[in-house]
Amino acid sequence: MKHYSIAATLILTIFFNIRCFSQPKPDDKGLKDYYKNYFPIGVAVTPGQLRDPAQRSLILKHFNSITAENAMKMGPIHPEEDRYNWRDADAIVEFAVANGLKVRGHNLCWHKQAPKWIFLDQAGNTVTKEVLLNRLKAHIYAVVGRYKGKIYAWDVVNEAISDNPKMLLRNSLWYKICGEDYIAKAFEYAHQADPNAVLFYNDYNTESPEKRERIFQLLKKLKDAGVPVHAVGLQGHWSIIDPSEASLNASITRFSALDIDVQVTELDMSVYTDGNIVEQASNTESRGFSADREYKQQMQYAKMFSILRANKASITGVTFWNLSDRHSWLDNFPVRGRKNFPLLFDDQLTPKKAYWGVVNF
After folding, report:
1. Non-local CB neighbours of 262 within 8 Å, separated by 6+ positions
2. Which runs of consecutive H residues, i.e. helices, occur in 267-343?
3. Positive or negative, the Cα torsion across 109, 111, 117, 119?
4. How many structural domains does the chain have?
5. For the chain, which terminal residue's Cβ has fewer other Cβ atoms within 10 angstroms, N or C?
6. Is residue 238 part of a domain?
7. Catalytic positions, please?
8. Chain centre distance of CA 341
9. What pTM, to 2 d.p., does this model score?
10. Which domain holds residue 258?
11. How far apart are CA 46 and CA 322, in angstroms?
C-alpha cells in the first residue's frame, strides 16, 4: 500500500477538487461517450419522457441503455390473470430498438407492485404453492418471451433479502406461500423463456456489510445449486454521505468472487441523510438544494464513479434511476412531499456540478 506525506495528500486532494469542479465548454459528448471504455450508462425512463422532445434528446445524447421505471413491473404489466398491459412496455422497447439502445428488464418477481390476484383464489383465499409457482411461470414466460432478443438482461428477483439482520429472506407472501423455492424457480423460468438473457438478483443497501453477506449467502447457495443467476444488481440508492469508497469497493470485490457480473442498477444520490428512515415528528432536517449539499453531492458522485472505473473489469453497467431532478421517486420518499435533487441534470435538463464530477477524470 502506498503511503503519502501530508503535503502530497493535500496536493492530491486539491488536484481532485480542481478536476471535479472544472466545467468545460458544452460539447457533443454525453455520459455514454465519456464512459465508452468502461461500461454502458443507462437510465430509467417513462413513455411520457420518450414522447417529450427535450427529454428524448437528453436520453439519446447521454445514455446507451434504458430501463422501464414502472411499465414492466408485475402490477402494471399484468393487472389481471387473463390481461396484460403491453402498451407502455412495448413503446419503451420499440424506442430502444429504433435507436440502438440496450434494454434492461425490471422486474419479474417482487414483493411490492405485485397484483393481489396472483396470491388469491376466486374465493379470496391464499393459493397453494403449486398454483402460485404456476402463475409466476406463466407471467415470466409471457413477459420475457415477448421481448426475447430485445431485452438483454432482467432483474428476475428483487429485494428478497430481509431488512431484519437476524433473518435471511424477507417474510413476503412469496416466501410465506412458497418458501425460498420461489427464488430459484423464478430464475429457472426466466432462463427457459430466454436462454441468452443475463439474469440478475437486485437489491438495495448492498454496501452494508451485514446485508452484503446475507446477499452473498443467497447468491452462493443459488450458484452452488446450479440455478442460472448470472449477475447482481447494486441498486445504488445512495446519499451525499453514504456509502464510503471502501464499502462500495468491498461489495464489488465480494460479489465478483462468485464469478458473476455486477451492475449499479438504480443510481441516485439523495441530498438528504435520513436514508430509508421514515420521517418522525422530531425530524427537523432542513429542505432544499443548498450550496453545501451541492458540493457534497458533486464530491460523492465523483468518488463513487472513481471506484466504479477502478472496477471496470467487474462492472458491466451503471443505470441512473430517473433522468433529471424534474422527476424522482425520492421526491416522496421517505418524507412525503419533500423535493429531492438526486440526479446529474436539474429540472431544466441542464448538467449540474455533479455531472462534471462524474465526467472529469
Report:
1. 231, 232, 234, 252, 255, 256, 311, 314, 315, 316
2. 291-310
3. positive
4. 1
5. N
6. yes
7. 159, 266
8. 17
9. 0.92
10. 38-278+285-359
11. 9
